[in-house]
Amino acid sequence: MTGDLGMDLPGFLALVRARWRLIAGIVAAAVLLALVASLLQSSRYRATADLLFADSPAGDVIAASGAGGSSDDVPERVAATNLGLASLAGVAVRVKQELRSSSSPEELRHAAEVETSGDSDLGTVTAEWTSPEQSAAIANAFADQIVAIRRQAAQADIQRAIDALNQLLEAQPKPAARAPADPSTTALRDRIAQLQALKALETGGVNIVERATPPRDRSAPKPIRNALIAGFVALVLALLAVVLVARLEERVADEEQLAASVGAPILARIPQLPRSRSFAPTAAESQDPAFLEAFEFLRLNLELRRADVLRSANDSVVLAVTSPKAAEGKTTVVSWLARALGISGGDVVVVDLDVRRPELHRFVSGFGEEGASPSLNGDEREPESQPVNEPPAPVRPAYTEHDIAASLTQLALCRGNSRRAARFLKSAGLDISESTLRRWKLVHAQMYDEIKAANTLRASARYATHVTLLPGVRLFTAADDEAFAGRPLSRERLRELFAELQRQSAYALVDTPPVTTAAEASAIAAEADGVVLVVDLARLRRRELLATKRQLEHARAEIVGIVINHSSVELTAYDAPANGTGSLAGRLTGGPRATLRRVTRPHRTSETSWPSWLDRVTGHQEEPTDRE
User: Which of 348, 463, 360, 469 is nearest to 414 (CA)?
Assistant: First the structure.
């Protein structure tokens, strides 16, 4: 069962594991029906009588008498003749007359059968009936009639020989008076006398060795045997039906079939959000609590499988996140998983290696479609824009140091573009006008320069990573790197990149192109420590899934698990109020400004030290050193 649908032995076993409930149900139903049908049937009993078939001496005597006949009958033909006697309608009629039964001759004829044991002269007459006594009586009656018919046939042969000898005797010339008898006449008379004696003793070459006795146990029905046979037949038919349906069906039936086909567990189920929602960056807090909780499940399951599955011997892990085809949600999974890992305290680098459609920066840095990926090495000239008419606020809001630090960080990420920075800050829950951002840039020039310096120091490395608005998360985009932009990905450059990122972070999450549409996805998966496969179960097709699995197997990639996006399974946040603050995700974020405060801390390296203002804003305290 090989072919494009992957119905080889592993695929067949995976299909059986996915459909085992259906197969078991069919087998159980067949077994139950066989048991019920067997128990509803009337009991049947089988009785047997043994016969011994032997050559009749009449043939030799007749041949010796010169009256015809032959003793050269073939044994197989003789046995077949004897066995055919039981199927004669006349035998059944004679059995009916002997037993004085109310059953028809046809029923009696079908109730009995005669069999031989191999090449031996033994035969058995078997009769099956609804009572043990009646079955024994029918078997004995058929045996008696077979013997009687065979005896009558043999006696008829002898009688014909006697008649032939009598005719010869009458044809002999009569001797004269007182003349001695003719020796030939005397011989004919002796032979006739011998045949008459043989006729009286003739048995037809068939004797009853053992008569039938009433059986103790019934022969039918046998519920256990019938149930086993029905179960086996149902199993074969169920397997054939499942394989046939699977070959004709293109959709993946359920999560069990998905996990069995890929050979990896389900790590998380991302719920389906209303389609009316507009695009919101990952740093925004206006997300469903169940949506956030799903990524906490994903983070925890990855950490649990990290030591058992991933082949990395280092403390840092490189995970490639891919999908069978486009628009499955892999970029969303990368950004929100990075957020969950960053909130838990890990250092994370998200890597956008999808050079054909780079979109990861929109999720983690708040850049819209018109923006580019963050780079702090170029100029910061703010494009001219039309003045925005903002209604004057009656009361100027009070901003904290955390708000100022977060706003200047976003302004640096947007390369000094106050309009873009204000737009993203508003979507993240911090409403600050463009004019306020421009004023803070001048008033807090030292703070702004320190933020740029912290990012520029990391951006000056071999593979530049940039700060994002997510806590503990930095971004690397291949589209902005000369070693990757516009050039095919080589395994040597990927190996060098991943080694550098492992030195900088605990997790490196790589956003790759779809496996079935871009060749570089296999190269990335081969160099990563593990692969997380993101699928949309409603849109997934078996051909695409099996093609993805085969491609990853060719690359010798380790599939850590599967993330089901747009899942129909409802995940309700435990004890979550309507605003979501009671869920785990809500407590971790602590409101919209808590995330922005954590984001403002740049990544600390051995070459840099924390700016003094960041210690006050983030609450960082140097660990005390041991003193003797």
Answer: 469
pLDDT in tens, 75-106: 566 556 656 665 667 788 888 888 888 888 88
- Given this model, what pLDDT does residue 147 score? 85
Nearest alpha carbon to residue 595 among 283, 290, 287: 283
Question: Which helix H or strand E contains 149, and what residues bound it?
Answer: helix 132-171
Checking if the pLDDT of 623 tops 70, the result is no
10 Å CB burial of residue 522 (0-12, 13-18, 19+) is: buried
d(CA 79, CA 152): 17
How does strand 530-536 pair with strand 317-322?
parallel
For the four alpha carbons of 162, 167, 173 and 174, in that order, the dihedral sign comes to positive
In Å, how far are 2, 3, 324 from 12, measured between CA atoms? 10, 12, 21
User: Do both 77 and 111 map to the same domain?
Assistant: yes
- Reported as a single tens digit per residue, the pLDDT across 37-53 is 988 888 889 999 988 87
Task: State which residues form the domain around 36.
Answer: 9-40+223-248
Residues, the chain: 628
**What does the pLDDT read at residue 321?**
93
Whether residue 94 is found in the same domain as residue 112: yes
Say yes or no: 282 and 353 in one domain: yes
**What percent of the chain lies above the pLDDT cut of 90?**
12
Residue 55 sits in a domain whose CATH number is: 3.30.1890
**Residue 553 shares a structural domain with residue 605:** yes
Tokens in use for 522? 């296999």
pLDDT tens sequence across 146-197: 888 888 888 888 888 888 888 887 887 777 666 676 778 788 888 888 888 8
Instruction: Find the CATH number of the domain harbouring 564.
Output: 3.40.50.300
Does 353 reside within a domain?
A: yes
Torsion 271-276-278-279 (CA) sign: positive
Residue 236 vs residues 15, 24, 606, 608: alpha-carbon distances, Å? 14, 12, 67, 70
Same domain (yes/no): 152, 266: no
Amino acid at 130: T
Domain count of the fold of the chain: 3
Cα 197 from Cα 169, distance rounded (Å) = 18
Distance, in Å, from the CA atom of 175 to the CA atom of 181, rounded to the nearest integer, reads 7
pLDDT reading at 423 higher than 70: yes
Q: Is residue 623 part of a domain?
A: no
Interval 526-542 mean pLDDT = 89
- Give a yes or no: residue 363 inside a domain: yes
* Same-domain check for residues 136 and 260: no
Distance CA 374, CA 623 (A): 33
* pLDDT for residue 314 is more than 70: no
Q: Are residues 346 and 469 in the same domain?
A: yes
Helix (H, G, I), strand (E, B) or coil at 370: coil
Tell me, yes or no, whether 192 and 66 share the same domain.
yes
185: its two tokens? 């006449």
Answer whether residue 453 is part of any domain: yes
In this predicted structure, the answer to whether residue 581 has a pLDDT above a threshold of 50 is no
